[in-house]
Amino acid sequence: MENTRELMTAVKQRHGLTSDYQLAKFLSLSRQRVSANLHGGTVMNDETALKVADALGIERGRVLAIVAAERAPTPTTKKEWLKLAATAALVLVAIVGADHGGQLAALAVAFPAGVTEGTLVIMLNAVPALLAAILALVLLSRSRAQTPRAQ
Fold first, then answer.
1. Which of 38, 27, 84, 76 is nearest to 59 (CA)?
2. Among 3, 49, 51, 101, which residue's beta carbon has the most beta carbons within 10 A?
3. d(C-alpha 24, C-alpha 95), whole Å
4. Residue 151: inside a domain, yes or no?
């Protein structure tokens, strides 16, 4: 899912909606807006992106980044937004420590240009280590703050 049309189509499929009208009602949008997003090539706005993320049960930041990528003025900017979308989802999965129904594999398929198998492994290994390092620094700074200094 890399664009508005694919995301909105996924909502229809996931919730068994058979028409644009049903999708509009489900997302509390006008039928015209849904039709423009699905068939007119317009990019959904941020509020709609949040509703779509919730309807799909995926990270809101990921959908916002996908929408931002669609609006990006250059291919380079678009690529960076898509990387950010993939990274945001991977970080969330790594922090939570769960792969709900194969989301990691789905991310690798959804973002082949931005996420490779090596990136998945690095992200999953690096995030817990990064969190441990941050915790160690916080604890170290607290212990130093509590230690009286010689004069």
1. 84
2. 49
3. 34
4. no
Residue 3 three-state SS: coil
Q: What is the pTM of this model?
A: 0.60
Among the residue ranges 82-91, 109-118, 127-136, the one predicted with the least confidence is 109-118
**Predicted confidence band at 80 (pLDDT cuts at 50, 70, 90)?**
confident
In a domain? residue 60: yes
Q: Residue 52 has which token pair?
A: 């779509």
pLDDT above 90: residue 55 = yes
Number of domains in the chain: 1
* Local structure of 42: helix, strand or coil: coil
Domain limits for position 94: 4-146
Q: Give CB contacts under 8 A, 24+ apart, made by 87-91.
A: 87/114, 87/115, 87/123, 88/59, 88/61, 88/62, 89/58, 89/59, 89/61, 89/62, 90/115, 90/119, 90/120, 90/123, 90/124, 91/123, 91/127
